[in-house]
Amino acid sequence: MDQTHVRALEALQPFIHLANSNSATSPRFIANLITNATSSPHTYVFAELLETETVQALASPDTPAEYQAYLKLLQIFAWGTWQEYQETPNLPKLSSEQSLKLRLLSLLSLAASAESLTYPALMNALSFSSTAELESLVTTAIYANLISARLSPATTPPYVNVTAVAPLRDVQPQALPKMISLLTDWEARCGEVVSDLEAEIARVKSNATARHAKDQAYQKGIEEAMERRKAMGGSSLDASSGGSSRGKLASFGRRPVGRWAAGGGVPGNKREADDIDRDDGFWESGEGAEAGSRMDIDEAPASRGGSRHSKRILGGRKA
Hints:
Elements: H1 3-19, H2 27-39, H3 47-50, H4 53-56, H5 65-79, H6 82-87, H7 96-113, E1 116-118, H8 119-126, H9 131-143, E2 147-152, E3 159-165, H10 176-250, H11 259-263, H12 270-277, H13 287-290, E4 295-297, E5 312-314
Antiparallel strand pairs: 1-3, 2-3, 4-5
């Protein structure tokens, strides 16, 4: 609860106790009680005082007419305005303190209905004849923490910009059914919004779960593909190595003999490879001998004088 409202309730408590006391037996006593309560500088709410039996007893037909009007006056202070007081006949005359209090309460009602109030509109609603009176009332309301506002007298038209209003006006009983209906509709709309939010949250969670499962399946597929690629890569490497060795031997067309056959491999340098390409004619198969191929083999190393020994001719006549 707002602190200003709490202080206003505390200020009204002494008058409520008096209204419920044994001394509150005459309409005159209750009328004086209402006058004092509405004149007090710190009382701004009056619904609790209105609900007391002694105050409600003023509406009885047995109550003299001069005191019955005090019940209506207290109602105007509770939820009415200065204009309503001016338009209602046969009401008690107000003191200066009561006039100030009712104008302040009326300013609260006007400020709650609009953020920006022009000087002419306020002066007409509060029966002021000069802007100085209006500015004095607004300043009093600001210092009493009834409103938060800023005066703008230099604008055209001049206005009062209200930014906050204290919750000090009582609610008229006739307005309660309408307020209950509005609150019920608001509660129903809030329930619909909550239901929509819950459905949206469930949809987002479902999409997130499906997306996570899809990402996991995709990652698992990548890992399996990498494993298969690794396995296929090793087999291809082995097959490529074996096929390459066999291809090197097959490229010669036949199996060599002699020192290369004994060595178990291909020639170790370019010169030896060139000797193979020239096809000197000595092969394990008999095809070379039948074709008249030949190979010269030195019987002994050359002497220092550069002369060579005679050669033994294999496989055919010497050219």
